[in-house]
Design brief:
alpha/beta; five-stranded parallel beta sheet; 6 helices; 37% helix
């Protein structure tokens, strides 16, 4: 059984929930954000930053991305986080979900093709809103169009 078969993804892709997140969020920690402009994480972060969101890079291999200080883990971020946006392999997402719960994030967002039932359960049980297999930039563009 694949992760997709194990998880009813529609539960985690509700347009009204996504719209509310995008409308109210101010700070987005992007786990796995790369400083390489050709990486999807960089393009998404740059887009979100241009839209007025505060981006917090989370990547132990980076010092700074898009003019923002990078942190090795969510646990090192010294400010409140609204959304944890994950660009990491599915198998490492349970630990990221635990950290998202520990720092009191409001939303745990797994990017396109990143699906892990254990991580989803950890985040949900920790009280976070969970979005799965959706791109924050694509969803923001849809939200701005009102579709």
């Amino acid at each position: 059984m694949t992760y997709e078969e194990a998880v009813d993804l529609s539960r985690y892709q509700d347009p009204a929930t996504i719209d509310e997140i995008l409308r109210t969020a101010r700070t987005i920690a992007i786990v796995g954000l790369s400083s390489k402009p050709n990486r999807p994480s960089y393009g998404v972060a740059a887009y979100l930053q241009r839209q007025g969101y505060r981006i917090i890079p989370v990547n132990p291999a980076e010092q700074e991305v898009l003019g923002e200080r990078a942190y090795p883990s969510l646990l090192d971020v010294p400010e409140p986080i609204d959304v944890v946006d994950v660009f990491r392999r599915p198998e490492v997402t349970p630990d990221i979900a635990r950290d998202a719960v520990a720092v009191g994030a409001k939303v745990f967002w797994l990017q396109l093709d990143i699906i892990n039932p254990e991580a989803i359960a950890i985040a949900e049980q920790g009280g976070l809103t969970v979005i799965v297999d959706r791109c924050t930039a694509i969803e923001h563009q849809r939200w701005k169009r009102g579709t």
